Amino acid sequence: MCTFPSIIGTRVSKGKFAVAAVTLDDYLPMRSTEVKNRTSTDGIKSLRLITAVKTPYLPDGRFDLEAYDSLINTQINGGAEGVIVGGTTGEGHLMSWDEHIMLIGHTVNCFGANIKVIGNTGSNSTREAVHATEQGFAVGMHAALHVNPYYGKTSTEGLISHFKEVLPMGPTIIYNVPSRTSQDIPPPVIEALSCYSNMAGVKECVGHERVKCYTDKGITIWSGNDDECHDSRWKYGATGVISVASNLVPGLMHSLMFEGENAALNEKLLPLMKWLFCEPNPIGLNTALAQLGVVRPVFRLPYTPLPLEKRVEFVRIVEAIGRENFVGQKEAQVLDDDDFVLISRY
């Protein structure tokens, strides 16, 4: 818990105060427009390994902050340079905005000096995206992640207008994932936004050719697909990856992004990456982390664990890659159906 001096200045003579040991800017809550330059956009552009971190739960469905803190520490020790908080993998769509902003603030306060905290404050409502992003920067996040409006899709001009409303607030990564939003963000939109000083880059899930289209123009790109990230990084110019697999094998993903082309390591990891996405993310990751004993086997519905045969397959994948490369200390185990807790109210 933070403690602050009860008196900012010490009176030394009538009408005069000594210089404060702590200035107001060090700790008072600020508006997003005042803190947006806490981390430069270039500081975000340089990140190579960003983990879309899992949010673990207690049996009653509340956040398990002890397990969460352990996950973040493991990411730091494994070489991750940033974390996405409350993204798709972190199940931000299953959180209230109060929960969401609290978790961003908690991550910043506990770990912000050691890892970049990128808050997923995007929404299909521009109003909500603006408000959440203001709050996220006010609690200290280093950058925002923004998806294009989904379900209630808009026009190309609408996409540009939506992103223009949030870009002035601070460093921003735009997230293009048509498989989830049902709408591609076309290159003309990204090119129109690339002139903004806060435009850090794009998490791109469309594939290598789209990655190259942008990197040829000097636009920073992170692969959004673990199974493509090695080639995107070393053959198509991507800066790095925003990864799901790094929740499980951060050290190996760090090697994949930092140590040059390594087709053998990439091939070794592909079965894990394919397994993780055999059902929509984060179902596989949630199952895997529970089997490794690093989170409780608690799922917020509508997510449910992978079936038994897939849980058995995961243990075999761990054995093939090497248990020492995975997070946690316990042996991977095959959990029974009755071991999992499914929560609909929390």
Automatic annotation (TrEMBL):
Question: Which EC numbers does the record give?
Answer: 4.3.3.7
Entry keyword annotation includes Amino-acid biosynthesis? yes
Residues spanning the membrane: none
Could you tell me which pathway this protein works in?
Amino-acid biosynthesis; L-lysine biosynthesis via DAP pathway; (S)-tetrahydrodipicolinate from L-aspartate: step 3/4
Q: Which InterPro entries match?
A: Aldolase_TIM, DapA, DapA-like, Schiff_base-form_aldolases_AS, Schiff_base-form_aldolases_CS
Q: Which NCBIfam families match?
A: dapA
> Which protein are we looking at?
4-hydroxy-tetrahydrodipicolinate synthase
Q: Give the organism the record lists.
A: Aegilops tauschii subsp. strangulata (Goatgrass)
Phylogenetic classification of the source organism? Eukaryota, Viridiplantae, Streptophyta, Embryophyta, Tracheophyta
